[in-house]
Amino acid sequence: MNALITARGITKHFGATKALDGVDLDVFAGEVHVLLGENGAGKSTLVKVLAGIHDPDDGTIERNARLAVIHQELALVPELSVAENLFLNRLPRRFGLVDRAAMRRRAPELLDRVGLRVHPDAKVRDLGIAQQQMVEIARALDQDAGVLILDEPTAVLTGTETDRLLEIMAQLRDNGVGLVFITHHLDEIQRVADRITVLRDGRSVGVLGPRATTRHMIELMVGRPIDEQYPREQQEAGEPLLRISGLTRSGAFEDVTIEVHAGEVVGVAGLVGAGRTEVARAAFGVDDYDRGTVEVDGKPVRRHDVQAAIRAGLGLVPEDRKGQGLVLTGTVGQNLELATLANRDPRRLREIADRLRVKGHVDQPVRELSGGNQQKVVIGKWLLADPKVLILDEPTRGVDVGAKVEIYELVNRMTAQGRAVLLVSSDLPEVIGMSDRVVVMAHGRVAGELPKGATQDQVMALAVQESTA
Amino acid sequence: MTTIGTRKHSVKRFLAENGALAGLLVLALVLAISNPAFLTAQNLVNVGVQAAAIAILAFGMTFVVVAGGIDLSVGSVAALAAMVGALTAGPVGLVVGALCGLVNGALVSYGKLPPFIATLAMLSVARGLTLVISGGQPHETDELVTFLGSNLTPMLPLPLLLMLALFGVTGLVLTRTNLGRRMYAIGGNEEAAKLSGIDVRRQKLWIYALSGLFAAAAGLVLAGRLSSAGPQAAVGYELDAIAAVVIGGASLSGGVGRATGTLVGALVLAVLRNGLNLLQVHPFWQQVVIGAVIALAALLDSLRRR
């Protein structure tokens, strides 16, 4: 069988940095080929070289099929309809005007190929992110793309949406499309991969088969044996530091009670939309609530007042790193000092920066850091403020394996010093592996609590339970 | 990253931050060669005096722009403050300027108006009030204000000194005060600033008040120079102030900007005007050239950032 894409010895420099160093890659028709590697390993550069956006400094690429890249930031026009987006650069025309009838006739067939049931006249803006991805995939397929490159498509999807995407990918594969799939989620890889090319520091360090173990993948990726993916060091639980009681905001969450003790990590699991982030934000004073109380170290915290929450000893690492966590125009130092401007301490700032092992200088623009290092900066901001309770909302989303473990070590260190952590996470192995107890939310309520050592099935059983309200 | 990479990086960063300075030097060089009158001490001092009012307005504007806003009212507020100063006393003018800024800030932070709209309204209100209280007539300034516009010695005009002093204050506020650091945070990402415990609304009050205060100072300097406060003084100056800030490398989307950049930006405008006069370019064409330079500066800036 002929390869759709054959790349040999691809080398690419950016200035003095070698982004790619002699990488080989084949993509065959009818396979899902996973590109795996930490942030900065060269995946994105490789994709850009394959797509012809960058020319390689060295090496050859043979393309025997059209190639389409689906980026995380979708290339759709939100204000136009689904049909118009499908035919964006080649709208069918009649008498020089756009032929809407023809567009509407042809759109359903394209949408069927990706199993998307939306009206062709619906505005793209009104679709969910998963549906938008499908529109873009359908458009790529209509342009006879033989190879589809999916750059972290699942990072923005919920569990069921991801399942759906993986199904479609399997279908496309069976129809002879070659897929290149980039993801940080190892379980997804195990579900769809036919081959896995692992990149590290711009080099291809191995090609694995579909039955590769998680441990094997991680060790290749980070280049050393990993002792423990979730190195939680449990502490003796002390006094309750955070007590959320009966917290209610109609339409968002109902009678939520969560207690976190000194030295403890309490996980909050649940499906997207279960109200976890809403509770976290309300407890931190970002949004208001109707009823209930939030107490830190036995003292009630004024509602809807972030400054009061911080004074009481709370901190929040929000789920949207770039949108809510970072000042992207600032430097590492500027971001670290954000929460402690009133009593700035340059010496401690440097100390925290060192402890975080953020690659780069405190004067470096934070924009230039990888996702993992950026997240460490957001967490570092709170380490400087030294809160009694830190709320982490999806702290490792889009973060590579190495940085993940470093973030877990920071959590361990906090609890070892008698602080408490509330860990909101959609990553089931993480929330189970790092928490001492797991609170599961469903439909805005606490559906139940599980002790250390709960299984994913137990968590899911609580998370998907029918609403009793 | 290797040392070579870092060094290349820092060169690029230096250019990105000091492109306007390079432009100013090139401009000055061209003028010095083409007209000997440019490089005389007296002419340079004149340029400095001409730059002073715009620069002081632009310093205040820098605070607002770094914090992600805009202040269209500075020209009118300058005129109002100067007129109040002429009719009562100079310091009262400063207070009125700061109050105008506070109103802007309140409309933006508590009224949730877009800064463009809030300050556009103030532009009209302040100009109108200036006309009302002056009866449409210019008024002579008192000794104190006239002193602000005078020369200590022939080569040492006070407006120039005030500009440099306020330049220092601006730099200090931006880099060394909590308010300054918060401006960058608010302009860079207001949500992140809020979630880090910064009281964004209250900070905005102070930021716009500072802009109003600087506008008032500029108005007094301007009036002092003429020994008279005019009801139509400083019309359109807000646009020059914004141009100076942008030429200086600040981003209108917020989070980026420096005092040095703004000073250089104001000097570029003043040198350009002076040079075009020396070269006897018709005033109508001067506007065309200045507009083109603003576009060019912004264009270079956007290319550098890519």
UniProtKB/TrEMBL annotation, chain A:
One of its GO terms (molecular function) is ATP hydrolysis activity. It comes from the Bacteria. Residues 5-226, 236-468 form the ABC transporter domain. PROSITE patterns: ABC_TRANSPORTER_1, ABC_TRANSPORTER_2. Pfam families: ABC_tran. InterPro entries: AAA+_ATPase (IPR003593), ABC_carbohydrate_import_ATPase (IPR050107), ABC_transporter-like_ATP-bd (IPR003439), ABC_transporter-like_CS (IPR017871), P-loop_NTPase (IPR027417). Gene3D superfamilies: P-loop containing nucleotide triphosphate hydrolases. Keywords: ATP-binding, Nucleotide-binding, Repeat, Transport. PANTHER family: CARBOHYDRATE TRANSPORT ATP-BINDING PROTEIN MG119-RELATED, GALACTOFURANOSE TRANSPORTER ATP-BINDING PROTEIN YTFR. This is Ribose transport system ATP-binding protein. The lineage of its organism: Bacteria, Bacillati, Actinomycetota, Actinomycetes, Pseudonocardiales.
Automatic annotation (TrEMBL), chain B:
InterPro entries: ABC_transp_permease. It is a multi-pass membrane protein. It holds the Pfam family BPD_transp_2. GO terms for molecular function: transmembrane transporter activity. It is found in: Cell membrane. The keyword 4Fe-4S does not apply. The keyword Cell inner membrane does not apply. Keywords: Cell membrane, Membrane, Transmembrane, Transmembrane helix. The chain crosses the membrane at residues 20-39, 51-70, 76-103, 115-136, 156-174, 205-223, 284-303. GO terms for cellular component: plasma membrane. This is Ribose transport system permease protein. It comes from Lentzea fradiae. The lineage of its organism: Bacteria, Bacillati, Actinomycetota, Actinomycetes, Pseudonocardiales.
